[in-house]
């Protein structure tokens, strides 16, 4: 299933604390879209859904729905800071190809957005 690095846990702990208790955890999901075919989604949630897998990393709780689970099996989520900005980075062993921005991937053969423009979803910080 999903693994969080220490940097991701520390960042998410601060984000959840800022929610003032309104969020019980973070949902990580996969949806159609992005420049490579599928995109990662993250958002604060008040509670787990009925079909969610619930993962705990110290003070951080992650919710993953059953449709996203196969695409997220083995994924490592990190939080990186660099010259171009900061954001969450997904290292996905299931991705056949990834977008240049790392926020979109293809689960099957083909697909690349190395020449895509920022308006196509690449180059954004999530």
Automatic annotation (TrEMBL):
Domain named Core: residues: 2-103
InterPro entries assigned: ATAP, ATAP_core_dom, FeS_cluster_insertion_CS, HesB-like_dom_sf
PANTHER family, alphabetized: IRON-SULFUR CLUSTER ASSEMBLY 2 HOMOLOG, MITOCHONDRIAL (PTHR43011:SF1)
Q: What is this protein called?
A: Iron-sulfur cluster assembly protein
**UniProt source species:** Azospirillum rugosum
Q: Which lineage?
A: Bacteria, Pseudomonadati, Pseudomonadota, Alphaproteobacteria, Rhodospirillales
